[in-house]
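Long-time lurker. I teach an intro course on protein structure, and each term I like to show students one example going from raw sequence to a predicted 3D structure in token notation. This year I'd like something fresh instead of my usual example. Would anyone be willing to generate the tokens for the chain below so I can use it in lecture? Attribution to the forum is fine with me.
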Amino acid sequence: MIDMEEISARLCLHEGIKLEPYKCPKGHWTIGVGRNLETNPITPEEEKVIGNWRHGITKDAAFYLLKKDIRRVTAECQKKIPFWKYLDAERKYALLDMAFNLGINRLLRFKKMLSEMAIGNYRGAAKECLNSKYARDVGKRAERIAKTIETGEFEP
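-- Reply from a regular --
Happy to contribute to a lecture. Here you go:
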């Protein structure tokens, strides 16, 4: 897999970083680098490290949460995507990015895209990625992810 710093930088590109709680375009309370506080609330352990987040967090706290989120989402992908271990690092990243944005359960609804990836038809998988509400909602992000799926290379 790509190193944690590179994944963090890419997710910051796609998600942005906001140190105050805010409502995302879907109306969910969010903080840091895309941490959805409704589906993934701050744990007591995390609060001990980051402090009272309700009035904002530091950049270090945002990256602490991001690293935990990357580990959690990676583990979900490993568990729920049967062919995960056969993918190259960039295609793993593409699915990780989608799961980070959508949640693993919504990613798993991309049945045609995942089926194409499972058989190595990356061009077909990229086409399925772009033929979705996700692509219409996130625009350039989806274009980057689809291109990464198709080519195995990430271009910022």
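Some talking points for your students: The two ends are 18 Å apart (CA to CA). The longest helix spans residues 59-80.
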